[in-house]
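Q: I have two molecules that I believe assemble together. Could you output structure tokens for the complex as a whole instead of separate predictions?
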Amino acid sequence: METPAIPVPEARSVVPASLRGLLPVLLALPVLALFQWLMSDAPFASYLLSVVGVNIILAVSLNIVNGMTGQFSIGHAGFMAVGAYISGVLSLNLKDIALSFLPVAVSDQVFFVLSLLVGGLAAALCGFLVGLPSLRLRGDYLAIVTLGFGEIIRVVVQNTDAFGRALGLSGIPQTSSPAMVYFFVFLTVLVARRITGSSHGRSLWAIREDEVAAEAMGVDTTGYKVRAFVISSFFAGIAGALFAHFVPIINPGSFTFVKSMEIVVMVVLGGLGSTTGAIVAATFLTLLPEGLRSLFTVLGAEGSLAQKVDQIRMPVYGLLLVVLMLARPQGLFGTKEIWDVLPRWIPRKRRGLA
Amino acid sequence: MSAAVQETKAAAGAPLLQADGVSIQFGGLKALTDFNLSVRQGDLQGLIGPNGAGKSTAFNVLTGVYPPTQGEVRVTGQRVNGWLPHQINHLGLARTFQNIRLFRALTALDNVKVACRAQGALHPEGVGLGAKMKGAFLNYRDWWRALLLTPRFQQEERELTQQAERLLEVMGLSHRRDEEARNLPYGEQRRLEIARALGTQPKVLLLDEPAAGMNTREKADLMVLIRKLRDDFQLGVLVIEHDMKLVMGICESITVLDHGETIARGAPAQVRSDRKVIEAYLGDSYLESHGGAA
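A: Yes, here they are, computed for all two components at once.
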């Protein structure tokens, strides 16, 4: 791990200390507005970018548990499902209500954000309930429990009328937008980064490095692991909730073990412990099938191959992982972050010149 | 227990760390039998014994890695049987490890900061649902402060850095501040472990073979350093050590273990001439051929 990402502010820092927490969000909002304006005429690009965004949220949040804390959770799709279904059902029920003192579009967004948060909190609660017993133990128990949890959620959904059983839920208001998705992407990345730069992050890294030593040095290992897991589940829930509001239908098939493994592959490919890696790998792996599809279509020769992209996707992932393990076992980025490299590179160069 | 009560007790010379008839059994194996120990502020005690005598097991029982099968362990007067290691650490007991266990991928500074923070982040852990909920609430509030980068959080972070830098300086590691722990030379890793243990603001420091793998000069330096730490930080120190010269040189009282049993205790000179100790270290045949204890 690099030195903490948070620079020690000088007394003559331009930004007042009280503003530093919110500043990135304030800077991001106009960029997102511009982004939304650019995307307004491109429905397919909007959809694709939203999927990329959801996958980034999933990968970055899973990285908090699997990367930073060194635990192994393989049921992330389960938490995503909880967020998707809880917020989906909520939105379906709130569909016909509007706040009279606001324009309809704004009122819709208010309810959307509300149901997002409820979905996230529901997933966080599940994370707490799953994490508390299994994170007390060391080793592979978390993997087994999360695997089971993912399947339980899927089976429960498949057999509950309120969640539309195997048919899924349709008619959820499509209130999501790329700007909203990327706002939460931004928030997730910001949270992940600030965790790394804080004492909480250091404790998580310490647990990853040596749990026995961390415990002996006064780190409440179980507590830290559970809290990391809860935060991770919360964002998985948010990702699921966002997903539910831009796809026409959600069904249990979207939240299977395969989806969980996809997220794990993203994190491992990017480098366990690197948020940058998670972002890059999530983007790459989401766009890969689309890229292949277009490629095959352009080549024209194998029309049927283009349709088979989804089927050959998993073998391709497997192959990628094998190649990665042979060539670069620590993942593309290891534990490096782009923001650790960039700002330092400039002063160093200056010093060299002077 | 309030800090004030602890202060008075320490001042009165009450033992900070006490083991009363502690035994531990793994299945049929008695790793430690009726072990007694009492460490006060300003003590510098040694724990020695041949390989497999139960020295590290004793450390593990004292620090909460294993709960004792029998007997009781008290830290600052508080009974800690069955407590988790981090809870015992919060009472003021810190340790180093025989086989160095640093956070290898973290920088030297971060290694110490982890320990400093763990102590700073203490929220009262009580029994009962109310106290637990309160603790949980305070913990999550700390996370929020970090996520929102509140001025208070930034201030805390600066203080932690200063505190950790000071400890690195004490241990002569300032020049390694930003180096990853795994890249430090062996002797410096040992010193970093001590710095990290000091970060938890201990009252009693347990050192598990601190001189292992060091050369003669480093050992001599270490002896001076351990004494200095005891005086500067007002600690009680308990050292496990194989190197007789080191133990005899600095410890005022030595406990000798063999097969989990305490076979001798006392001042270095007294222990050195103890028949049982020589027997344990050199075997009966040595005694027979040399006609008894020196």
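A: One point stands out. Chain B has twelve helices and ten strands.
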